[in-house]
Amino acid sequence: MYRRSTLKSFTFAFEGIVYVLRTQRNMKIHFAVAFLVMGASLFFDLSRTEIIALLMSITFVLVTEMVNTAVEASIDTFGTAFDPMAKIAKDVAAGAVLIAAVNALAVAYLIFFDRITEPSRELITLVRQSPTHLSMIALVLVILTAIVIKAFLHRGTAFHGGMPSGHAAAAFAGWTAITYISASLQHGILISALGFMMAFLVAQSRVESGVHSVQEVFFGAVLGILVTTILFQLWG
Question: Catalytic: 65?
Answer without folding.
Answer: yes
